[in-house]
Amino acid sequence: MSYTPGGRADKFGNQYESMWVANRLLDILFEHKYRSVIVEAIGEDEDGVDLWVEDFDGNKLGEQCKARNGSSEKWSVSDLKEVLKRIPTHVSDKNNKYFKLVSPIPFTLLDDLCNDAQTSDNSEAYYTSIVGSSEKKRKIFSQLCKVFNLDEEDQEDRKQVYLYLKRFNIEYYPSSDRTLDDLNLKALSILSGTPSVVVSLLRSFVIDEKMLGKEINSQYLLNYLAKHDIHPKQKLDDHRLSTAFNTK
Fold first, then answer.
1. If we measure between CA atoms, which residue out of 18, 25, 51, 23 comes closest to residue 218?
2. Bridge partners, residue 60, by sequence
3. What is the DSSP letter of 211?
4. Lower CB count within 10 Å: N or C terminus of the chain?
5. What is the DSSP letter of 210?
6. Is residue 4 part of a domain?
7. 36: domain range?
8. Total number of domains constituting the chain
9. What is the rounded CA–CA span in Å between residue 66 and residue 83?
């Protein structure tokens, strides 16, 4: 499904982002993997990150939501240039930060390049594999080098692209009624109250509670939900809850 710029499409984008925010808020309530979430101003901001998710080891994952690509139903490196240019700003092999694009639009070749990097221990073996296995992957890699202002012919520059891709990935998150149904089911499984009401509260929570740019942890969320007579169905330390939803 494609969208025209502005108006309904912009509204759709915000609706999509709010679904992802609700998903992440449910994650920090009942997954031991995540400690907190910070939601920046939704839309285009100066650092290109909509959410920062932090785990209990101090690793931070920056996430940007992209609900649409104009009238196109696929991504290209050119389409994502402004997103990809921000990867060096947020990640390096010397920090504990990672970066993710969340979108209902797939980019299989770039996702494959990221997955290949993350399962490889050697940048040159990785590059040789790309050159030998797929001309399409090689083309994407070459385009990435240009986006990062790096020289594909230089071994150290190739290594830098490889290191960026080890800390970047794309998560396909559909923008369908099924996704909303899954959110409702997730809420139903772990919280009291009407699932659609719970999800609606979580989708509007950041704006209603003026929490943009502020750290949100599980206790803050539980206190907020309790005001609406919504409570956990089981204790937070119940292992079944912490492993019920193994999201990225």
1. 25
2. 54, 97
3. -
4. N
5. T
6. yes
7. 1-68+173-248
8. 1
9. 10
Query: What whole-number distance in Å separates Cα of residue 93 and Cα of residue 117?
Result: 13
* Token pair listed for 3: 């969208």
**Exposed e or buried b for every residue in 59-69, given b needs 16+ CB within 10 A?**
ebbbbbbbbbb
Q: Cα 79 to chain center, whole Å? A: 17
Identify which of 216, 203, 167 has the alpha carbon closest to the alpha carbon of residue 63: 167
State the pTM of this model: 0.85
Contact (Cβ atoms closer than 8 angstroms) between residue 4 and residue 22: no
- Which residue from 177, 161, 2 is spatially nearest to 72, judged by alpha carbons? 2
Whether 231 maps to a domain, the answer reads yes
Quote the CA–CA distance of 163 and 142 in Å, as a whole number. 15
How long a stretch of residues is the chain? 248
Between CA 126 and CA 122 the distance in angstroms is: 6
Contact 33, 246 (CB under 8 A): no
- Do the domain assignments include residue 106? no
- Could you tell me if residue 110 is inside a domain? no
Under 8 Å between Cβ of 24 and 37: yes
pLDDT of residue 32: 67
* DSSP 3-state of 37: strand
Q: Which residue stretches of 61-194 are H helix? A: 81-84, 87-90, 108-118, 123-133, 135-147, 155-166, 177-190
* Predicted confidence (pLDDT) per residue in 102-159, tens digit: 999 999 999 999 999 999 999 999 999 988 888 999 999 999 999 999 999 999 999 9
